[in-house]
Amino acid sequence: MPTTLQLELRFKSNAGIDEEQEERNVRMPIGRLAKITGVPASAIRYWERHGLLPAPERESGQRRYPPEAAERITVLRKCQQAGLTLVEISEFQLEQPRRKAMIRAKITEIEQRLVDLDHAHQLLTHALKCSEEDIVRCPKFREQMAAWQTPDPAPPLF
């Protein structure tokens, strides 16, 4: 009995589209996702357990992630770099009212840190230039310290 061989023709004009579509549907193992994002696999699993990343599909018992998982991890890293805790990141992903309340509180916290950093910068810059043996006795430094003790008017709420 003769064997029939079927050929699938792929012309250049449609091959790129098929490959592109296939690439978007390819799910990757956790090791590849970790390598792409620069985040250890243990952190990825931790974020999954705490609901910050959706649970991936499994293939033969192994986690398989869609390409969008790398984008989600990038957002999580940026949130961490912005100073959000894991609880705050979780709230960041919630419905609008809770998210806005958390964001307002975080903005207030960051603004205070900016003030503190500005004071630290002023102190250190002055200390470099100051000729006083004991900086605490420097009149200019004492003047600046007194100004820092005076509360600024409350910033407007968004």
Furnish the topology, listing elements before pairings.
Layout: H1 12-25, H2 30-37, H3 41-49, E1 57-59, E2 62-64, H4 68-81, H5 86-92, H6 96-129, H7 139-149
Antiparallel strand pairs: 1-2
Structure description:
The protein is 61% helix and 4% strand. A hairpin with a 2-residue loop joins strand 1 and strand 2. The termini are far apart. The chain has a two-stranded antiparallel ribbon. The protein is mostly helical. Mean pLDDT is 80; it is low at 16-22. The chain contains 7 helices and 2 strands, in the order H-H-H-E-E-H-H-H-H. The longest helix has 34 residues, at 96-129. The protein has helices spanning 12-25, 30-37, 41-49, 68-81, 86-92, 96-129, 139-149; strands at 57-59, 62-64.
Provide a count of the helices: 7
Spatial arrangement of strands, main beta sheet: 1-2
Question: What general form does the structure show?
Answer: elongated
- Work out the number of β strands: 2
Distance between the termini: 79 Å
| Major beta sheet summary | 2 strands, antiparallel
Compact summary:
The protein has 158 residues and is mostly helical. The chain has 7 helices and 2 strands, in the order αααββαααα.
Please supply descriptive tags for the structure shown above:
elongated; 7 helices; 158 residues; mainly alpha; 4% strand; two-stranded antiparallel sheet
